[in-house]
Amino acid sequence: MSTRDDLRDIALKEFAVAGYAGTSLQRIAEIAGVSKSNVLYHFDSKEALLEAAIGPAIDQMAVILGSIDESLAEPKARRAFIEQFVDFLLERRLEVHMFISQGPGLEDVPVVDRANALVATLATFFSSAVSSVEDHLRFGVALGGAAYVLSAKQDPSLAEGPFEESESDEVRAALVTIVSELLAPVSVQQTHTPAR
Amino acid sequence: MSTRDDLRDIALKEFAVAGYAGTSLQRIAEIAGVSKSNVLYHFDSKEALLEAAIGPAIDQMAVILGSIDESLAEPKARRAFIEQFVDFLLERRLEVHMFISQGPGLEDVPVVDRANALVATLATFFSSAVSSVEDHLRFGVALGGAAYVLSAKQDPSLAEGPFEESESDEVRAALVTIVSELLAPVSVQQTHTPAR
DNA sequence: ACAGCCTCTGACCGATCGGTCAGCTACCTT
DNA sequence: AAGGTAGCTGACCGATCGGTCAGAGGCTGT
């Protein structure tokens, strides 16, 4: 693995656990065993490092959202989307946790604004302007709850690899069940894209 | 309202939205319209300000947890607890959001460790060692999801007062429904404290 | 052998961090 | 009137922040 990739991975982990503002370039450099200057050689700025760390996850999220069309009202399509979404949460739990917990307060960082826009898009799919307050809450609980539980599970270690092999499948299945349950009563608006 | 209370409230809001590390005493002082020295006159240190900001919420949480006994298995008692818990989330959403999103990474801050211990206690009530992975996830999704959705709802403003009067009741009722739904299948262990 | 590039470092920069300190003002007590 | 105390401020401290810069060392192509 290249030094650049090392730095990106370390930065992502530190940003997720200690926060963007709470993580210094010096600390990232020390963990990686390089100088702070070297961090700024590979990345133009701290903000550029943040973009490199969470950008791929946002790109991936955009692809997932682009693949869903208005057929989301059909139970089968919806189930497939939820599975895809849970897989995304499992694979990118650090990035998602970062965005969930630090999304506000990291405004005017371009890559974060892009992520905010994506979540807004996703929300309109599941609960448009005409849906009830409860539907909004269901969507939020599903997204925020799944993101929280994944980041909180391996709290102190925040291990690098995915979950234990044996546990991973069980977690995935349970999450799909829970999220499906949460979103089941939500009616999907499949007409036009909402006005706002 | 005294200057001290002003500072505590401002600090809580800023800590919640920008993070503890991302909020400077200078900024808190500017918002309050006082000098930074004055902040450190009312609070011995930044950490003391954090404790003053979230301590009351943790005390309140401890009281709630102390009031529940092992009768939580009965549906009526469980429902009452969920309502009490949702009310707590509504009243203390800033503190809860702070703890949820910054709990790890704020270790060795005494007041945060106390909050962590409380959540662990709560978790053992709902899902002991013998319960399934899905039960653990259900509990986590309910807690983290409810906390996220409440902090995310009023994103930019992060208004001081509670929700709009008309909307507040609806949000409360919906949250009680959703959390009850999430926790319904979870079997409560009411024998002894789990072995591990 | 030399030139050029990539990787990387230490020294250094101004700004800001949390925190200390001496002292000012206003008010209360005797 | 004198003294004490609570509330507050500006000047200042060392440490650390993100970021710049000149240059060292290694590797490749000529």
What would your notes on this structure say?
Two copies of one chain form a homodimer. With 196 residues, chain A is mostly helical. The first copy, chain A, has helices spanning 3-18, 25-32, 36-42, 46-67, 75-91, 93-102, 110-126, 133-153, 165-183. Chain A is elongated, with a radius of gyration of 18 Å. Mean pLDDT of chain A is 83; it is low at 156-161 and 189-196. Chain A binds chain B through residues 17-22, 100-105, 132-134, 137-138, 140-149, 152-153, 155-156, 158, 167, 170-171, 174-175, 177-178, 181-182, and chain B through 17-22, 100-105, 132-134, 137-138, 140-149, 152-153, 155-156, 158, 167, 170-171, 174-175, 177-178, 181-182. The first copy, chain A, binds a DNA duplex (30 and 30 nucleotides) through helix 3.
Biggest interface and its residues per chain? A-B, 41 and 41 residues
Spans of at least 5 consecutive residues with low confidence of chain A:
156-161, 189-196
- Quick one: biggest sheet of chain A? none
Strand portion of chain A: under 5%
Shape category of chain A: elongated
Amino-to-carboxy terminus distance of chain A:
44 Å
**Counting H and I runs of at least 4 residues, what is the number of helices of chain A?**
9
- The count of DSSP E runs of length 2 or more, i.e. the number of strands of chain A, is 0
Percentage of residues assigned to helices of chain A: 55-70%
Mean pLDDT of chain A: 83
